[in-house]
Amino acid sequence: MTEPGDRFVRAARASDVQAKGCLAVQVNGHTVALFSRDGRMYAVDNRCPHMGFPLDRGTVEDGILTCHWHHARFDLASGGTFDQFAGDVRTFPVQVRDGEVWVDLAPHADPRAYHRARLGDGLERDIPLVLGKAVIALLDGGAPPSEPFRAGLEFGTRYRLAGWGPGLTILVGMMNLVPALDADDRARALYHGLSAVARDCDGQPPRFALRPLPGHPADPAALGRWFRRFVEVRDAEGAERCVVSAARAGADPRQLAEMLFAAATDHRYIQTGHVLDFTNKAFESLDAAGWEHAESVLTSVVPGYASADRMEESNEWRHPVDLVGILERAFDSLPQALSEGRSRRGTWAGREALVVVVLGEDPQGIADALLGALREGCPETELAATVSYAAALRIARFPTTNEFGDWDTALHTFTFANAVHQGLRRVPSAELVRGVFDAAISVYLDRFLNVPPARLPETRPSDDPRGILRELPALLDRQQQVNEAAAHVARYLHSAGDPARLLAALGSLLLREDRDFHTIQTIEGAFRLFAHLRKTAAAANVLVAAARYLAAHAPTVRAQGQTFQIADRLHRGERLFEAQP
Ligand code: FES
User: Fold this and answer.
1) Alpha carbon distance 448, 460 (integer Å)
2) Per-residue model confidence (pLDDT) at position 581
3) Environment class of residue 548 by beta-carbon count within 10 Å: exposed (0-12), middle (13-18) or buried (19+)?
């Protein structure tokens, strides 16, 4: 009999369980495996927490339940696992009353805490399936995307001696994509980002944080000067102490951004743009996770500053034209150009003409045109967006006859230009404007990638834009559908297709492939620039560039997506193996 308040429900006759040793029963929608051992009764969820194999087909020996699928082992009494790839199996309180087995199926006391802990296990042990399950369960349980994101950020900044790397950059890129994605794809995006962080940190020594300078903190301006001085001589520790001291002393987000962006642009296009890109992503991570993480996040990018290649030392930036010399002379004129332009803000309308110059063959002309635009009132952010658009056009016009690896050359320039643009939206620092000039010169150096230029797609409207979108997945199931994918995107947009649906579709196509750092950067950067140019004719070309890059790098084997799929099916309670002999 069930008493009021009694949560136990009848599950089976005790004699049946004792006769067989193990019995799988359906109770209130749960499949429960009942085990009788040494005079005691046990009840566990019959789905192995690893991949759902039925545990009633497992073996119990000396109190240890072993799943026969991948041999995960569990303490039969507590459900605790000895194999972290599996996770603990759920056990249920069990009682024998008058020859009947009763079980209590009440849910976990705090499922969110459990899944948070599993997220930590997945990060520490680099187990994508565990990460997939945890992030699906957390979001499904009502956690905001920022919760698993923050966990990944804290882990990634602490457990990688080399500091901020591609894994954290992917995580932030994925977090940035979340608002554009369909609801079903949000957990998948975070899964990719968290898996990238776990992979980056796997086997790496941790970072030990430096303490800030003692006593009364130096003022942010002095710390900023010292930071640049120490980066100049490649002293990572000295530089890091300046950053942690500035953050601890309460330097505001704008001061911190000015400090880091200035040092990131003291030399030309350092580390092929990665330092500035990582720095921008670090700031974006704080917007999402909270500025209380500023010390750990911002210090993690500093090692990259000290060790970065500087284009002053590269052949192509010095010969046959001394591009660095052109830039340094332009920088001498920068303060005056900015000051002249400030009184003319809002009057500049030279984007199209400037793009033509930036894509041209005259580096001195490019530097002069950028200065001229600033003098004419072009805002710093608009100048950066214009150069970023020119960089996107290099991808949109990239002929497939080029060497495959050169997609990355074009991508690096675009990613850097996008980071400068986003950085200037954060803080319109005069030092960071130098990054716009670097990006423009990199666009110039990439001009060989558009010889001959691929044609931008024709714009023949369709009366069925949704049909165009539906064709995209099948198209990207085949290799090298670069121009076809571009044509679909252009046609969709010129057929009054809803841009939001296209962004969600491109995001979904990105997420179904195995992670590629550069493809993720392209899509995320293109979405940002598209948003900025949305009301202009140029916007379509940005997504054409994104679709071309994605199509050039698809299909992959999609193994990572399959892992996520398994996690998702398990979460939804689908039968994975139960029907198999
Ligand atoms: S160990 Fe049980 S399904 Fe893999």
Assistant:
1) 30
2) 38
3) buried
Output phi, psi for 24, to 5 deg: -95, 130
Nearest of 427, 463, 412, 491 to residue 169 by alpha carbon: 412
59 phi and psi, to 5 degrees? Answer: -125, 140
140 or 111: which leads in pLDDT: 140
- Annotate 569-581 with three-state secondary structure: HHHCCCCCCCCCC
* Ligand 1 center to 48 CA (angstroms): 6
Residue 4 has pLDDT above 70, yes or no: no
Query: How many residues make up the chain in this entry?
Result: 581
- DSSP lists the bridge partners of residue 40 as 37
The helix (H) or strand (E) run that includes residue 311 is none
Q: Strand 100-104 to strand 8-13: parallel, antiparallel, or no bridges (unpaired)? A: antiparallel
Tell which atom from ligand 1 comes closest to the C-alpha of 71: 1
How sure is the predictor about 168, in pLDDT bands with cuts at 50, 70 and 90?
very high
- Asked if 31 and 24 touch (Cβ cutoff 8 Å), the reply is yes
CA distance 20 to 557: 44
Closest residue by Cα to atom 4, ligand 1, is 70
Nearest alpha-carbon partner for 529 in 407, 393, 418, 394: 418
What are the Cα distances from residue 479, in Å, to 71, 289, 475, 547, 549?
38, 38, 8, 13, 12
Neighbours of 210 (CB within 10 A): 17
Q: Assign residue 453 a region: left if phi > 0, alpha if psi is -120 to 50, beta otherwise?
A: beta
What pLDDT digit, counting tens, does each position of 61-95 carry?
999 999 999 999 999 999 999 999 999 999 999 99
Closest to 382 (Cα-Cα) out of 325, 333, 338: 338
CA separation for the pair 549, 435 (Å, rounded): 24
Digit-coded pLDDT (tens) for 493-526: 999 999 999 999 999 999 999 999 999 999 999 9
Q: In angstroms, rounded to a whole number, what is the distance separating the alpha carbons of residues 334 and 17? A: 83
| Cα-based distances in Å from 482 to 202, 359, 409, 578 | 35, 22, 17, 42
Q: Which atom of ligand 1 is closest in space to residue 58's alpha carbon?
A: 2
72 lines ligand 1 (CB under 6 A): yes
Quote the pLDDT of residue 109: 76
* Whole-prediction pTM: 0.95
Q: Which atom number of ligand 1 is nearest to the Cα of residue 51?
A: 3
Determine if ligand 1 sits within 6 Å of the CB of residue 68: no
Q: 75 C-alpha vs ligand 1 centroid, how far in Å? A: 15
CA 524, 527, 531, 534: dihedral to nearest 10 degrees? 160
- CB neighbours of residue 211 within 10 Å: 9
* Cα–Cα dist 403/407, whole Å: 8
The residues, ordered by sequence, that sit 6+ positions from 468 with a Cβ below 8 Å of its Cβ are 462, 488, 491, 492, 495, 497
Helix (H), strand (E) at residue 126: none
41: three-class secondary structure by DSSP: strand
- Residue 349, both tokens: 């309308």
